[in-house]
Specification:
By secondary structure, the protein is of the alpha/beta class. The protein contains 16 helices and twelve strands. The chain has an eight-stranded parallel beta sheet with strand order 1-4-5-6-8-10-11-12. Helix 4 runs parallel beside helix 5 and helix 6 packs parallel to helix 7. The longest helix has 21 residues. The relative contact order is 0.16. The mean pLDDT is 96. Alpha-D-allopyranose binds next to loops.
Length: 427
Amino acid sequence: MRLDSNQILSHNDSFSAKHRESFQFLNRELTDKGVDVESVISQLQQFQVAIPSWALGAGGTRFGRFSIGGEPGDLYQKLADISLINDLTGAAGAISLHIPWDIPDETSNLLDWAKECGISFDAVNSNTFQDQAEQALSYKYGSLCHTSSAVREQAIKHHVEVINYGKSLGSKSITIWLSDGSTFPGQLNFRQSLSRTKESLQEIYKHLPDDWKMFIEYKPYESQFYSTVVQDWGTSYLLAAACGEKAYSLVDLGHHLPNTNIEQIVATLLSLGKLGGFHFNDSKYGDDDLTVGSIKPYQLFLIFLELVSGTSDPSVLNPPISYMIDASHNVKDPLEDLIQSLEAILLSYAQALTVDFIKLDKLREKNDVTLAQELLQDAYRTDCRPLLREARIRKQAAYSPIGFYRENNLRQKLIQERGFSNRAKGL
Ligand code: AFD
Ligand code: MN
Ligand code: MN
């Protein structure tokens, strides 16, 4: 559904006096601190986060799923939903597909439709954590790590098919998340399963086009509950290093045991030049796939602090990072949840961009812990939302995306258009 740009403009006009006052106040406050506000706004306008195709319908847990109505029933409707989010936010111009859930009958008019929606194709995601209907061999006991070479070959073939499908759509990266592991002690030989996984990934890597990247995602548990082969950032890093320069680690915020210092992992992978990308979400206990910034917003800010300082450090040789949301919406309207996630991501990014890193480094050199902390907390406690609104307004996106979505009853319109029976393939 493409939104009427005139409707967005009149929405924005209705807030213009209020926005001008708060933006001018913040602009003065930040300029007095030496912040280049125009540069911050321009970076906010350029920042893009890919939307996962599997997050546009109501999610679920292993205990059940509750439909919401108006959900997308196919990839064309998913692209329409993302174009709606992008029209409102200006920050969601790409979709990340999940194969085979997202293989439509005909790719040619899919490209035309995606172009009409203004949406490009970001990373493609493989799936060897489920068995598909026509699959010859089961992944029940693993895929790329499997003791049977026939199963490993089938899984490698699947990844090559995913790459080829992505190539047909203009994608330039593949994300590989393996749930391979064991549920009980004794089930798996740790050393052999790791070396089999490495060899399988190296085989897939041979099929990676020169201008592609391979993201190796890690996760401590699920769907296995005793061990996961690619369990942590270190394992992901060693596998990426074993594959080659086009392979990187992917950090999913929900894939860390409680209290892990994720911002330190981000800094370490940046210094190794192997930080490929993020799956943004939030969590309280595990891989809860909660709305970004809804539980630990300060952690998100500290992660962006490492991203902003790392990517502006000439000694850090890390390529541009791929950003994606990876969350599941069980009790909220999925489109509203994705809009909230985008707001949280851009807000943390904006706050981190206002930090004076030269001043911070001087305080660190002097071991002035209090003032170093004060500097960070001051940035985190600054309400930078007027900067996000200014960035959106300048892109003809909405002053308040959620406000516009509600004012115009967009979910009701989707229900009128699609009814309640749709259920897109996915988790
Ligand atoms: C699940 C996994 C992982 C993966 C995603 C898409 O935990 O995050 O990236 O599915 O395959 O969330
Ligand atoms: Mn993920
Ligand atoms: Mn996950």
